[in-house]
Amino acid sequence: MIKTDILIIGAGPTGLFTVFEAGLLKLKCHLIDALPQPGGQCSEIYPKKPIYDIPAYPEILAGDLTDKLLEQCKQFEPGFTLGERAETIEKQEDGTFIVTTNKGTQHHAPVVAIAGGLGSFEPRKPLIHNIASFEDKGVEYIIKDPEMYRNKRVVIAGGGDSALDWSIFLSDVAKEVTLIHRRNEFRGHLDSVEKVQDLKNKKKINLITPAEVIGIVGDYEVKAVVVKESDNIYIDKEYELECDHFIPLFGLSPKLGPIANWGLEIEKNAIVVNNALDYQTNIPGIFAIGDVNTYPGKLKLILCGFHEATLMCQAAYQIINPGKRYVMKYTTVAGVDGFDGTRKEAPKAVVKAIK
Amino acid sequence: MEQDINIKITDREGVTHEIQAPTDMAMNLMEVVRSYELAPEGTIGVCGGMAMCASCQCYVLSDTQLPEMQDDEEAMLSEAFYVKDNSRLGCQIQMTPDMDGLEVELAPES
């Protein structure tokens, strides 16, 4: 059981900044995120895109913002449970919470801060009528263990970076790799596209474009996929392609997911909070901050998430330390004492006589 | 407002809305849909308008002249679902005065 002061669900910018603000109040944080790396949308969807409305940064790449936030909160030693989705929450008799992930990891905290953005990222599943019956029986939407494809025949569908990168990687592992995409053009890093071209020329990747997988054949396990090859002009054929695995990689889309069943008041796919006072939800001890919440006047901006996280931490302090006195201190005055023993402080003024 | 144009948007429930869209606020079609709340928040414009999620996919029903499709829109549509010949991404269509009379239908959520 992982124990912490504030359990943060979602390791995006709002969640990461919470670690810093909580640390100033000597509260320890642990973060859960369904993605394998911190940063949320900033890392997953648009790491190379610039943001222009982070105060004091005229321009910063979303990926760099994540790095800066990690650096800023580092001395408060946040814990991470990554690649797991918060599934259930149980309120204990003493008012604390136990949150369990889809992999069974348990977390115990007196305060839970949901900073889940638009939700946890789930793979987008292609519209193939019988695909659900082959999930985990040869159809995988996410590659968890590349070793399971060793000496197997693999069909990958998609036209983005993950389809390209996994085709390249698996061409060394699998017996046979086929990449299927609806167009001849791929959207990915240039070097990935060129590498696939090279592997295609060397016949290490079998490329089928423009085409799509429209059906799956097999009893219990995948035996083949039905490929429809068509350019709407000259080519139009359908055939079965034998394979052991079909991996559709069509990106991820965020879904509120299990959080929607936690008894929280939901409106417009967001969690209703108490009108910008401290962002507490209808369940005392559970807060919602950043894009995941809604209240009159709400704006889904990173900078608003930072503000919400800061106020939330003050309320969390009162819950964790009932009746204990505290006044907000400026970091310039008080410095920053890390849990790792480091201290940052403003240099002392030099006093020297003028003769 | 004289800069406003009249457009028709059919939502995902099949209801057609006749609305006025401003052309002087640098708004795109996805944002117009959101400003009128014609699709629930969180189901449209998920990526914020970067042509990276296709949650604003729509079918263009009128023969209105629209800006030509750029590479990133075309690439995204090639990975989206429910795509038809008249599919476009709402976030890539900036509202301009000559789009008066535009008619679109929102594609299903996926």
What does this structure look like?
The complex is a heterodimer of chains A (355) and B (110). With 355 residues, chain A is of the alpha/beta class. Chain A folds into two domains: 212 residues, FAD/NAD(P)-binding domain (3-Layer(bba) Sandwich); 120 residues, FAD/NAD(P)-binding domain (3-Layer(bba) Sandwich), CATH 3.50.50. Chain A has seven helices and 25 strands. In chain A, the strands form eight sheets. In chain A, strands 6-3-2-10-22 form a five-stranded parallel β-sheet, covered by helices on one side. A four-stranded mixed β-sheet of chain A has the order 1-9-8-7, with no helix packed on it. Chain A has a four-stranded parallel β-sheet with strand order 14-13-12-18, with helices on one face. In chain A, α1 links the parallel β2 and β3. In chain A, α1 runs parallel beside α3, α1 packs parallel to α6 and α4 packs across α5. The longest helix of chain A has 19 residues. Chain A starts with a strand and ends in an 11-residue tail after the last strand. The model of chain A has no long low-confidence stretch (mean pLDDT 94). With 110 residues, chain B is α+β, with helices and mostly antiparallel strands. Chain B has a single domain, classed as Ubiquitin-like (UB roll). Chain B is built from two helices and five strands, in the order ββαβαββ. Chain B has a five-stranded mixed β-sheet with strand order 2-1-5-3-4, with helices on one face. In chain B, β1 and β2 form a beta hairpin. The longest helix of chain B has 7 residues.
CATH architecture identity of chain B: Roll
- Overall average pLDDT of chain B: 93
Radius of gyration of chain B: 13 Å
Structure class of chain A: alpha/beta
SSE string of chain B, helix = H, strand = E? EEHEHEE
Largest interface: A-B, 27 and 20 residues
Spatial order of strands in the largest sheet of chain A = 6-3-2-10-22
What level of helicity do the residues of chain B show? 10-25%
The total of helices of chain A stands at: 7
CATH topology of the largest domain in chain A: FAD/NAD(P)-binding domain
How many separate helices of chain B? 2
What is the CATH superfamily label of the largest domain in chain A?
FAD/NAD(P)-binding domain
As residue ranges, the low-confidence spans of chain A are none
CATH architecture of the largest domain in chain A: 3-Layer(bba) Sandwich
Mean pLDDT of chain A: 94
Major sheet of chain B: order of its strands? 2-1-5-3-4
Summarize the amount of helix of chain A as a percent range.
10-25%
